[in-house]
Amino acid sequence: MLVEQGAAPTRKPTIRDVAAAAGVSRGTVSRVINGGHWVSPEARTAVEAAIASTGYTANHAARTLATGRSNSLAFLLTEQHHLLFSDPAYSLLLRGAAEALARRAMTLVLLVAGTAEERANIASYVSAGHVDGVLLISSHAEDPLVGSLMGAGIPVVCSGEPLGLAGRLSSVSVDEKGSAREMTRHLLDRGHRRIGMIAGPLDTPGGRYRLDGFREELGDLFDPSLVEQGSWGRESGTAAMESLLARATDLDAVFAASDLMAAGAIAAATRAGVRVPDDIAVVGFDDSGLAAEHEPSITTMRQPWHELSEQMVTLLLEIIEGAAPRTIVLPTELVTRQSG
What we know:
Elements: H1 15-22, H2 26-33, H3 41-54, H4 60-67, E1 72-77, H5 81-86, H6 88-102, E2 107-112, H7 116-127, E3 134-137, H8 144-151, E4 156-159, E5 170-174, H9 176-189, E6 195-199, H10 205-218, E7 227-229, H11 234-247, E8 253-256, H12 259-271, E9 281-283, H13 290-293, E10 300-302, H14 305-320, E11 327-330, E12 333-335
Parallel strand pairs: 1-2, 1-3, 3-4, 4-5, 5-11, 6-7, 6-8, 8-9
Antiparallel strand pairs: 10-12
Helix pairs in contact: 1-2, 1-3, 6-14, 7-8, 9-10, 11-12
């Protein structure tokens, strides 16, 4: 950039400039920038607007030296890599978390641990202080990575209540069991009685609790032979539906624990000459975009994706500041479409 002779060089805006523009103290600006929580919503909005108008940029290196923090959080997905791209639910959580951190002038680091080697590498990376905390997506029971993070004292917030660790780790989830009961009741109210389920992995909260809700709502109508387990992916839904159709000719409805598995189930039914929803109803869980676009469109339980991400980030920053673990449970919404 050329500077005219005699012209004063452009001065970088400071926290003092942001405070003056926002009409708050420098301490309030500092708390907003560093992710603190003792700031009113009005003050936070004013500071964020002032940062945008002044063009202020925090000196992250100086902040790291002063606070001992990296000013970044990890989005850690403990699933195979392909699910990050094939399942829109994970993309929605990732985008929401990134937006929540961007508003706080923080960085999100994406980590995927689909193998034992990746889990070990990530445990070392996180324990070395490269991030201040972990947003743990799709936790599995008895996963050694979870134990490694806890043993290293890493602040963690889970998406879904961590199996076997309730009260020890913070979590943000939907009412898995209650939501599954509502969807099952929807199928019963439509007159269906031979209802199968394609459950998710039973070592995950979504897999276990959605199956629990399904079983409880069916009561005496529950038939364990009409339950197949998938892996959240489309192909697993296809394989599960093929197995159900092969042994249950009177099947009249299937509840898949994810929209992606529901889509796979519909594909299998169509190939077998079974019409959805005329011959069999197929419903899902998530409403992450796929359900509305699918043909036929899929009846599903809508998760509040934006709020889930926002609450996870907020809760993790509280934990980093020393707050005790706590659990947040959010409601879902039944969305009725063409498939059932």
